[in-house]
Design a protein that fits this description.
three-stranded antiparallel sheet; two-stranded antiparallel ribbon; mainly alpha
Amino acid sequence: MPVHKGNIPRQSDLQRWPHLKHVNLPEIEAGIELLIGTNVSKALEPLQVIRSVNNGPYAIRTMLGWTVNGPLKGDSGDAMDCEQPELQVNRVSVVCLDELWQQQFKADFPECSMDEQIGMSRDDQKFMELVTNSAKQVNGHYQINLPLRKRDVSMQNNKKIIEQRALHLNKRLQKDSSFHADYMAIMNDLVAKGYAERVPEEDVEHSDGKVWYIPHHGIYHPTKGKTRVVFDCGARFQGTSLNAQLLQGPDLTSSLIGVVTRFRVFVANRVSEIRKASHPSQWRYVETASNPADVASRGVKVDTFLKNATWVSGPHFLLQPESEWPVSPDDALQLPSDDPEVKKAVAVNAVQVREEVDAVTRMIHYFDSWTHLRKSVAWILRFKTWLLSVCQKRRQLSMALAQSDLDTDQQRRSLEKDMETFKRKTVSSCLSVGELEKAELEIIKLRQRKRFPEEFSRLKKGKSVKGHSHIYTLCPLMEDGVLRVGGRLSRSSMPAETKHPIILAKDLHISASLLRHIHQEVGHGGRNHMLSKLRERYWITGASTAIRRVLSKCIICRQLNAQPVSQQMADLPL
């Protein structure tokens, strides 16, 4: 540490500061060997503070004694001569040996800096230059020109193929009115916000290769009930596309593959440093046989390497006059189309769907048991009902007490007493059958609305479901907010829930839980027995497949149906 014993304040130094006369500084004959860090905050906690006077020093008493801070050997007016220099410390930082090693490594090998940017290719540099020069702010939004690979790009008119795709899109819009309405709303919104504008007719008729049509289509998310329009810039016509004519640009994000292949963060950086420090006109051609870099990049055997003088002394022509140096071939600066080191533009269209899971869905997926799920939901519904009744009772009592002759404190005490009595009377220890059945219906309603949003919407409006629906053949109807099977059994004498069973999809979590529950109820019976029991109240689409999946995962059934082990008989006696 850059301090010595002369920097330690002494008792004699405090004599010229009357406000510090009560401070006692014991003198210890020892060197400065310990630095108290902020992690020992108790040792630095101030127990008493003597404030400064006339910009002088101030003192703080800690559990270790008094410490004096400030201009102890000089005041704010004129500096006093002293034997020891004053020392000011702004900050003391603690670094790790790994950090010091990395800093030293970067200083010795700056081109291998571990936190420098990834070296850019010529296409990437061109992209950044075009974006930087063309970026401008228009109506509060930034706008850039298309980063074309060639300014004089010429593309064939792809109107014919786009018209074919537009016809397919039009047929889809005509079949689905809701999809058509959503699609039109999205496109009108793009035009209204200025993201798109109508192209003048005179610009469309150009034949100079500057007209290109971008097809688009819609993607409907059945769970969220939303439509998204996708513009297909990778659509190809006569071997090219808009994406193929645009520069891809550098990847400015850190990827796992990039971290693993850092040795590639070393060659690229070397090339980048060479391009910064020189110009291609200064470069000279070196044939493979005389290039020492090929020895390291392509690899050679040890005995060949030991005999290779080029690695030590460089190409032999460097010792000759420059006029005798090799002449660059005419095609030296032309890269072949199949060069593996040239980055190719690859257009990939990807759709990522991320569904947000709400708290109720997480709770339903938490339980694998149908019984436990029903009980948990029943307790939640009871608690909800209890809270509503408590709020209503408090409101009634408050209104009644407000009309009484009691003062405010008496009203408050009476209200709390009556509420405590009401709460004790409304608490019940067991769930009733009705509460369990209500909880079951609430679970089913929630999952049906999540799984069949379009069918719910149409049936609620009094319309029938569409032909492409998975439950169209079941003639579904809605009864008390629950989707049930329709059919022609309404006049039969069977129970109502058997005539019109509840509809569930086989890919729902509650469907698997319900089938496991029925499987246990029927004593681990077979597929037909389970299906017969299921149809008494429920209709699961693709139930046979779902039942087979449950049976295949049942440990007890696998044990009961396992083939007995047969013992191999011994050889017959002679």
